[in-house]
Specification:
The complex is a heterodimer of chains A (about 300) and B (about 270). Helix content of chain A is about 35%, strand content about 30%. By secondary structure, chain A is an alpha/beta fold. In chain B, helix 2 packs antiparallel against helix 4, helix 4 packs antiparallel against helix 8 and helix 6 packs antiparallel against helix 7. The chains are: A alpha/beta (about 300), B mainly alpha (about 270).
Chain lengths: ~300, ~270
């Protein structure tokens, strides 16, 4: 759905995006992570044809951007760096104007489509109020509604849960998962690791303009081969495990062990086990490791 | 996109406030003239104002003469300066472009929107002035005298007034194109509007300077008052035609520049 090759953007002497090769496949929920200022938004803007690349290429739905913008973008819904709407007009009128502004919005179905998306994002009751009176969270929902208006094949969302309360974040997450089940591919840029960890199937990490990591989330979070044990009898356990374990705080990390066999071994020796399971790295660990200066120094 | 643009123009409260303010000055003048009965002597003050006490139907022309030098261009510059920069400032520009609306198309729609604004503003000013003129000012059905001194029938006056109104609308195109160009350069509508106004003020100033005579034919305000020539007998076409050509040239050059700048611009707003 999205492929970039050697995508680079310079603003004067500053290299904002440095030769990145993204690949987002159909059916992905792609989490695009990066600190503030790492080039996420510039990349999103290049993908959508708002910013023109200094070098490299973008393919969107298999066609070269920005040349194919008029053919491709009607199938893409986007939320870029916060929502925007005309404050003196109602949410409904804003959506109608935006839909009428481009070519692909069918006028006959417009009212119905607007009603549906407002319902989906939870704005059905306030659609007639002027946007000026909306809260930040409501504006965010309206922006999302605008992105959904033509049931896009691909959603490009930049910080979609910005400004929402926990309840709202949950609603939006469920909405996105529902859209994904119905066949939309989702490209989600965020600095919220938890958000990405809960939703995404694939992750790309941007660090100072470079793509530090791009991988399936399941692979990143695969067991590391070690087992974590928590026990009140730490010393006894270490004695039994005989050099195979390493103590970290109140936990023991056991190398190369099958959790079930390890548990049996410990219990047989009279060690009380409070908790035991395979070690998995959190996304935070992965991202920090990938973006640490030492980690990128060798590139 | 053009229809959307017109709808936005008409739905925006500011459009009507601007036109209302634009209309207030000539109306105030009409009221003052009616109350005091003191018209400027012929040859002084804004064009046609000396004649309106006897013939109120000339007041639309006087009203245009009043708003033309400053009020109307300010309104047009603000409107055109808003066009792209306003969308950029509000953040809606990026959503229009990914909708997608082609950049050239957007620019053309914006120009049409500004032209619609000019037409609307001039018609409202002329219309209100016709009403206030007929109600408050002189209603002697005397044959109107042309600027050259001969008599004009009321049919001739109506015809030439229509031409004059059209010419005033055309005169605003140059300002509109300059402001539209600046609007693609900056992300703040105010700077675009002020930039265009700076050009007009410079132009007005240079016109008073003998040393700048060589520049005069290229200055955007040079032929603005040529609509008065439409009331000479016979009509003195030279400046009117030059004015039309000059405004056309301004539109071509600055719309071209706007397009060249906007079509390849990085939209970071």
């Amino acid at each position: 759905m999205i492929t970039t090759s050697g995508l680079t953007k310079r603003f004067g002497p500053i290299v904002a995006v440095d030769g990145i090769d993204l690949r987002v496949d159909e059916g992905d929920i792609y989490g695009f992570l990066g600190a503030n200022g790492s080039g996420k938004t510039t990349t999103v803007r290049m993908i959508l044809g708002l910013v023109l690349a200094t070098s490299g290429a973008v393919e969107l739905l298999g066609q070269a951007m920005p040349k194919a913008a008029s053919r491709v973008l009607p199938q893409v819904g986007a939320l870029v760096e916060g929502p925007a709407a005309y404050g003196h007009l109602s949410g409904r009128v804003n959506l109608a104007l935006l839909d009428a502004a481009g070519a692909s919005g069918d006028r006959r179905t417009r009212r119905r489509r607007i009603g549906e998306v407002l319902e989906q994002v939870g704005l059905a009751d306030v659609g007639r109020r002027p946007v000026r009176a909306y809260s930040l969270g409501m504006r965010q929902r309206l922006g999302l509604a605008a992105a959904l208006l033509r049931t896009p094949r691909l959603l490009v969302l930049d910080e979609p849960t910005n400004g929402l309360d926990p309840q709202g974040i949950r609603e939006i997450r469920e909405l996105l998962l529902e859209l994904h089940r119905r066949g939309s591919t989702i490209f989600l840029s965020s600095h919220l690791l938890a958000e990405v960890e809960q939703m995404c199937t694939r992750v790309g990490v941007l660090d100072r303009g470079r793509l530090a990591l791009q991988q399936e989330l399941a692979v990143l979070r695969a067991p590391t081969g070690r087992t974590v044990v928590r026990t009140p009898d730490v010393d006894a356990a270490q004695a039994i495990l005989d050099g195979r374990s390493e103590r970290v705080g109140d936990r023991l990390l056991v190398r190369g062990a099958d959790p079930a066999a390890l548990n049996a071994e410990l219990v047989r020796a009279g060690v009380r086990v409070a908790e035991l399971g395979p070690e998995r790295r959190s996304l935070e660990d992965v991202v920090l490791a990938a973006t640490e200066p030492a980690g990128t120094g060798g590139r | 996109m053009i229809l959307v643009e017109l709808r936005k123009l008409l739905s925006r409260p500011r459009t009507w406030v601007t036109i209302g303010l634009l209309d207030a000055l000539p109306t105030l003048v009409a009221v003052l003239l009616a109350v005091t009965d003191l018209a400027p002597r012929p040859g002084t003050g804004p064009a046609f104002l000396s004649a309106v006490l006897s013939d109120g139907t000339l007041f639309p022309l006087a009203a245009l003469g009043i708003v033309l030098p400053l009020f109307l261009p300010i309104a047009v510059a603000i409107q055109a300066g808003e066009s792209i920069a306003g969308e950029a400032q509000g953040g809606t520009l990026r959503y229009l472009l990914v909708r997608p609306v082609g950049r050239t198309r957007l620019l053309v729609a914006k120009l049409v929107g500004v032209i619609a604004f000019v037409v609307l503003a001039v018609l409202v000013v002329a219309g209100t002035a016709y009403i206030t003129g007929s109600l408050l000012l002189g209603d002697q059905p005397l044959a109107t005298t042309s600027v050259s001194g001969s008599a004009l029938s009321s049919a001739e006056v109506a015809q030439r007034s229509a031409l004059a109104i059209g010419y005033v609308m055309l005169s605003m195109l140059g300002v509109a194109a300059v402001a539209l160009f600046l609007s693609t350069v900056t992300d703040t509508p105010l700077s675009a509007a002020l930039g265009a106004l700076a050009l007009l003020i410079a132009s007005t100033l240079l016109l008073t300077l003998d040393a700048a005579d060589a520049l005069a034919p290229y200055l955007p305000t040079r032929y603005w008052l040529a609509f008065v020539d439409l009331f000479r007998d016979p009509i003195f076409w030279r400046d009117v035609i030059r004015g039309v050509l000059q405004q056309g040239a301004y539109v071509l050059v600055f719309l071209g520049a706007a397009w060249a700048n906007f079509a390849t611009k990085d939209i970071t707003s």
